[in-house]
Amino acid sequence: MQEPLLDGITQTGVDRPEPILRAGNTNCGGCGMSIGLQMLSRAVADRTVQMVIPACCGIVTAGPFPHSAYGAPVVASTFASAAAVATGLAHVAKMNGEDTRVLCWAGDGGTYDIGMATISAAAERNEDILYICYDNEIYGNTGGQRSSATPMGAVTTTTASGKLEQKKDIVGIMAAHGIPYVATMSMAHPEDLFHKMRRALDMKGFRFLHMLSPCPTGWKSEPGEGINLVRQAVESGLYPVVEVFDGHRWVVNVDSALSQGALESYFAAQGRFGKTKIDLAEVSKAIHRNWRLLQMRAAFDTQKIS
Ligand code: SF4
Questions:
Q1: Which helix (H) or strand (E) holds 147?
Q2: Pocket lining for ligand 1, CB < 6 angstroms
């Protein structure tokens, strides 16, 4: 019988009962990524997974080799190569006939910026990968520099007077690849989140999930406020909870009240916006524009186009 390739990387019976993120890890208190990993753990349940984590906070979490805070096999990759490494693992698993889901767990720096070339290439080839971006809107483990996911007005170590540019539209970019599944997830709406994680785990082809991930250290917010902040982001319309199938069928999963009160609370609760003058009227206008576009996309019935 042919020897399996990369034998030993596959999740083993020893790993299976473990949570994806074990206790005793070094994440900051209130880290949204930790909450996301706990939720991922439940969604994965008894499925076999291999994880690829680039050089973001997610890999610092693992701790020093040979120990690991992860209860699943993890390959640590460079920022730039997570999707390429995951592509290789997915092909090897297929050649071995293994029922293994290969997933990338990456921050916004590794996704929106440094990893974009390999993500785009893997998406264009529709590789069989689940890519999850926990978006803390900052380079968390390297000192809190701005990324292209940092919102306009946020103070970071490289934008002392507040970022001048808009946040990149990663959902639109990934949907434009025509991949089977793109979705955003709110940790304040756990039923929707679990449904999407499970759906994405069991689909084939390139799947992309995005999760807004509060970072008390970078956002200068209270550690216990993370889920409230995400709820306010959804209620204000700042963070739409959506799905996109095959790049063209848009679904809005959580209606937003486009609440001005929630928007004000969201900005007021984060010290990163404290030094800059955020023009809430302009932010609100942009939110309304984005929602009109979303509603048009969701109403557009692509099934009727021949
Ligand atoms: S810096 Fe932010 S993302 Fe990184 S571990 Fe701390 S809270 Fe989490």
A1: none
A2: 27-28, 31, 33, 57, 136, 140-141, 215-218
Cα of 288 to ligand 1 centre, how many Å? 31
The per-residue pLDDT for 98 is 93
Q: Is the pLDDT of residue 183 over 60?
A: yes
Query: What Rg do the C-alpha atoms of the chain give, in angstroms?
Result: 19
Contact 52, 74 (CB under 8 A): yes
Q: How far apart are CA 18 and CA 110, in angstroms?
A: 26
Query: Is 177 in contact with 124 (CB distance < 8 Å)?
Result: yes
Which DSSP symbol is given to 168? Answer: P
Distance CA 233, CA 227 (A): 10
If one residue of 21, 25, 33, 60 were mutated to test the ligand 1 pocket, choosing by the most ligand atoms within 8 A of its CB, it would be: 33
* Whole-number Å distance between alpha carbons of 69 and 26: 9
Does the pLDDT value for residue 5 go beyond 80?
Answer: no
Q: Is the model more confident about 201 or about 304?
A: 201
pLDDT surpassing 90 at residue 6: no
Question: Do 240 and 184 touch, CB atoms closer than 8 A?
Answer: yes
What span, in angstroms and rounded, lies between the C-alpha atoms of 282 and 304? Answer: 36
Q: Could you report the per-residue pLDDT of 251-276, keeping only the tens digit for each?
A: 999 999 999 999 999 999 999 999 88
From CA 258, how far away is CA 263, in angstroms rounded? 8
Beta bridge partners of 207: 130, 181
Q: What is the pLDDT of residues 133-168, one digit of tens each?
A: 999 999 999 999 999 999 999 999 999 999 999 999
Q: 2 vs 5, 7, 93, 95, 98, CA distance in Å? A: 9, 12, 14, 11, 14
